[in-house]
Specification:
Elements lengths: L2 H11 L2 H28 L7 H5 L4 H42 L11 H37 L6
Helix pairs in contact: 2-4, 4-5
Length: 155
């Protein structure tokens, strides 16, 4: 079962607050692990380790792409998305309390302007994080393809 399927099952099965708690704890670990694995890959490059990147200029391109996109997710978009997710939950609570205090006749079911702003901001940052993650994965697949194409298999 892949990561997306597992998250979808969690999204469907867990209450929203539990799902939010799971995500806010899971993704920082994921982005740190992604960055550490990228560094481990650089250190273990065949034949001369990181010196290979200096000797073969084209070899560093996938690492540069993966490094920049992983760093952006680790340091900027991951934390920003996490914070906006938490702020959205707090805003839902504030909006819910306001609705409870209002008369049932005058309740407007549209989200508050602050909630609309938080949702837009969260969506933009979350989409950016997803796309950066896909670019990181794509760059590492590119490196894997380059590495595998250099293998000499004889039967």
């Amino acid at each position: 079962m892949n990561h997306a399927t597992q998250l979808h099952i969690c999204y469907i099965s867990l209450p929203r607050s539990a799902f939010t708690t799971l995500q806010k704890r899971l993704f920082p670990i994921y982005f740190r692990s992604q960055s550490l694995l990228l560094l481990l890959t650089i250190v273990t490059i065949p034949s001369q380790g990181p010196l290979t990147l200096i000797a073969h200029k084209a070899a560093w391109i996938p690492f540069a792409i993966a490094g920049v996109t992983a760093a952006l997710n680790l340091l900027l978009y991951g934390p920003r998305t996490r914070q906006l997710m938490i702020e959205r939950i707090h805003q839902e609570t504030r909006d819910g309390l306001q609705k409870q205090n209002a008369d049932d006749d005058g309740i407007d079911e549209t989200p508050s302007p602050e909630m609309q702003r938080l949702r837009r901001s969260f969506s933009r940052n979350h989409a950016m994080s997803i796309h950066l993650n896909l670019l990181t994965i794509g760059a590492m697949v590119w490196w894997g393809w380059k590495l595998a194409s250099n293998l000499k298999l004889e039967l």
